[in-house]
Amino acid sequence: MKKLITMSLAIVLQSACHAAPAATTTATVPRPAATTSGLTGAADPAAAVRAFMAAAKQQDLQALGGAWGDANGPARDAIAREELERRELIMLKCLRHDRYDVVGDAPGAAGARVLAVAITYKDVSQSTNFTVVRGPSNRWYVEKFDIEALQKICAAP
User: Fold this and answer.
1) What does the mean pLDDT of the chain come to?
2) CATH architecture, domain 2-21+51-155
């Protein structure tokens, strides 16, 4: 039974983070900006990962939606609210942390950056890669991360 639950969680987590963003719908509601300057995203790739991880630590769905996105801008402007929140809740479970360290930064495809991040939660330490892309207004967004690499954190009590 435990194996079935773990496999089900893995499938849900994988689909939540690997599914393509849905088209903008009328259900998308404009929200306050994630930063005091009125901009979403971050000034550089490392700052985008820091904002994303801070939002995860604080369990702040709006801030997470402002740091997560793609070349078109923040995810919260592109995904219907219910779907956005569903995906974010799954990500928050796997991004729980007591500490994290950005341990590497390398070029990615089409101008993206890939940052290696070591995450520690309780007695579990795992590393994953975050792909960060440049969006509108020269702002950077966490486009994706390898959630499968964080399965022990996802499953931790």
Assistant:
1) 82
2) Roll (3.10)
pLDDT digits (tens, 9 = 90+) for 10-57: 444 444 444 433 333 333 333 333 444 578 999 999 999 999 999 999
Pairing mode, strands 124-134 and 99-107: unpaired
| Selection from 155, 148, 153 nearest residue 17 by Cα | 148
Spatial separation of the C-alpha atoms in residues 126 and 32, rounded to whole Å? 33
DSSP state of 33: -
Angle at 151 between CA 102 and CA 56, to 5 degrees: 50
E strands, 17-123, in order? 69-70, 73-74, 99-107, 113-121
Give the domain ranges of the chain. 2-21+51-155
Q: What is the mean pLDDT of residues 130-148?
A: 97
